[in-house]
Write a structure and sequence with these properties.
Blueprint: E1 5-11, E2 61-65, E3 68-72, H1 74-80, E4 87-95, E5 105-113, H2 118-134, E6 136-143, E7 152-159, E8 169-175, H3 200-212, H4 231-245, H5 256-262, H6 266-271, H7 273-282, H8 295-304, H9 312-320, H10 335-344, H11 350-368, H12 377-392, H13 396-413, H14 417-424, H15 442-446
Antiparallel strand pairs: 1-5, 2-3, 4-6, 5-8, 6-7, 7-8
Length: 458
């Protein structure tokens, strides 16, 4: 079954205009001069053996694969390219609740039936109303142009018209592929100590602030997207118009109309001063003072002889204000601190997996070669840190696997002190009540080390 539809963009980000290169070499008397600048590139060998330019037929593109560069010719690249046919295909339907709003990407498209095509209009309307009644959405595969390499998969949402003269339509949003998703995991607020969480008075002050800044308190909504210009673009084009008329004109002050867009309503703020006062009163906000000299400057001056006598407090401050060191590997001296530092690094989701893996290996190494007087104490501290981290990140699998290996190791070596030490600290398996992905019940977790105790002879 095929239905002819037309596709329009409903919303699209307006990009900032691209600045062009401008040449002043053309004579001022030449009114037809374009002042255009053309850029050309020359390629030469990096070994320096020849200073001649490499012609295009002797050049080939290379793509990085790890540390090496893989050359791929134009013919090979054309053969590898995916060349799908232009068109839209419905892959299936699903419940609307399964498509999360944060998965929408890029622009929003509007799908309508082909104008003047009665059969297409009836088909689109029937499908849209059926989807609306069942609270369903459609998953589509789209290729916008013939020969286009990019294929998008998106969600089609019904848009039922309230006007008899306007036919029903669909909204289309692009969905991400697996490579597009960024899984940055953050610890739950519930895992923080009580001192880090707001009390009832602080929560009430925050609620009142949100209610006070309501954009539609009297039924008249402010900052409607249809009537709110981009202040950056608006200011740029106003200045561009001014420069076209007066080349020596200075940058004008910010227009009052734009101030209403980027700043809170002054009348609203004045009327609700008590709300801001309550917020300041319940949240003790302090401004971090700027240091007069950075730690590097302090160190250099100390080496050169200036500021030779520095008080203890100043020396401590210079160290405390240094930026935190990025931990890339769990060391032998402070494995728990290194693990916590790696888990807190959120610039890459791989840090969590790397930290858990390295601490597991460190624990196993400590079991084979335990410290002298502390015996297994250091390993137990690492197990406690690993358990806490796996619960926060909801990753029970690596920890539970490690505990099974520890129990097996203790049974093979006849070690009883370590299981007793772990049991005394409640360092047992992570149960399903602590992590949703765990397949261990609370009873199995409690009896994990009990199973190791030998049964008395009858």
């Amino acid at each position: 079954m095929k239905i002819k539809v037309w596709v329009y963009k409903k919303t699209q980000e307006e990009k900032f205009p691209t600045l062009k290169k401008y040449s002043e070499k053309a004579p001022a008397s030449n009114k037809l001069a374009t002042h255009q600048v053309k850029v050309s590139y020359e390629y030469k060998s990096v070994d320096g053996s020849s200073n001649s330019v490499i012609p295009p037929e002797q050049r080939i593109k290379g793509y990085r694969y790890g540390p090496q560069v893989v050359p791929i010719s134009t013919a090979e690249w054309d053969a590898v390219k995916f060349k799908p046919e232009k068109g839209i295909k419905v892959l299936g339907f699903t419940d609307a609740s399964k498509i999360k709003r944060h998965c929408y990407m890029k622009d929003v498209y509007l799908f309508i039936a082909e104008p003047g095509n009665t059969r297409a209009t009836l088909a689109v309307s029937a499908i849209a109303r059926a989807m609306k009644e069942m609270n369903a959405v459609a998953i589509l595969r789209c290729v916008w142009r013939q020969g286009q390499q990019n294929v998008v998969v998106g969600v089609l949402t019904p848009n039922i018209s309230q006007n008899d003269k306007i036919p029903d339509s669909f909204y289309f949003n692009v969905l991400p592929f697996a490579e597009d998703v960024r899984e940055y995991q953050f610890p739950s607020f519930n895992s923080f100590p009580a001192s880090w969480q707001p009390n009832d008075q602080q929560q009430k002050a925050a609620d009142e602030l949100v209610q006070m800044l309501d954009l539609a308190p009297s039924g008249k909504e402010a900052l409607l997207p249809e009537f709110t210009p981009n202040p950056v673009l608006e200011r740029f084009y106003r200045h561009l118009e001014l420069k076209a008329k007066q080349p020596d004109a200075a940058v004008p002050p910010l227009d009052e109309t734009l101030k209403k867009i980027i700043e809170p309503d002054p009348e609203l703020v004045a009327e609700n001063k008590s709300v801001f006062d309550a917020l300041h009163r319940h949240f003790e906000l302090k401004q971090n003072p700027k240091l007069k000299k950075s730690s590097r400057q302090w160190y250099q001056e100390k080496q050169s002889g200036s500021n030779a006598h520095v008080s203890g407090g100043q020396a401590v401050n210079s160290i405390e204000n240094q930026p935190p060191v990025k931990i890339e590997k769990i060391g032998d001296l402070t494995p728990v601190q290194d693990f916590e530092a790696m888990m807190s690094q959120r610039d890459n989701p791989e840090w969590v997996e790397k930290a858990i893996k390295e601490l597991r290996e460190k624990i196993l190494a400590l079991l084979i070669h335990p410290d002298g007087e502390d015996k297994y104490q250091k390993a137990v501290e690492c197990v406690a840190a690993l358990r806490k981290g796996c619960i926060i990140e909801q990753e029970p699998g690596p920890y539970n696997d490690l505990m099974h290996r520890i129990r097996q190791y203790c049974e093979e070596k006849g070690i009883k002190s370590l299981p007793q030490l772990l049991a005394s600290r409640d360092l047992t398996l992570i149960s399903k009540s602590e992590a949703e992905d765990s397949n261990v019940t609370a009873e199995e977790a409690r009896s994990f080390f009990v199973k190791m105790e030998p049964k008395p002879d009858v």
